[in-house]
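Batch manifest, entry 17 of 40.
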Amino acid sequence: LKERFMDYLMLKKKIVLPLFIVAIMVLSTFGIVLNSFTSNDTESIKYKGYRFNYDGRTWSTYKNNQRIEFLMDPRELDSMYLGGIIQKLSTYQKVYLSVDPDHDLDVETEFFKATLNQLFQIPVINACPEDKVQCKDIPLKDCKDAIPNQILIIKLEKGNNELQEEGSCIKILGDRDYFIKILEKLRLVRLL
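Output type: structure tokens
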């Protein structure tokens, strides 16, 4: 009887121990997978009365139960100089976005047009600052063509990051990141 009991214990050890190890491995894997779906790795900040959450890609907040997303941390946009651009965009009847085709700013131009249309609901028309072959079907507009309170010219140019105002003409010189910062600052000010 003692021998049978010892055999039973040995058999139990041979079956129970491996089953126990397999169960631990399966449950550990399940826990890791479950944790990856429920972990909350978002950064959260308070900015001008709004709670912003960063999900690793975008910053988002809510206004009137509507989610608003930004590409940049709103605190980084505080120092962005916009001059009188918001006031001008709010009062002018027409905006020409004058871009030299040699500067390869097609993506930036479309982003500017879409953002300005969304924020100000005014027509934004592509223009060229000088006569070139690529501009045959596009109006030629430069700062001299601006008319106070009627026609605003915004020139996008590659250069050092700065915004210059000359009456009814705004020159935005910079790289892609600077153009995005200007647009994000405009969105931040207008949407919140």
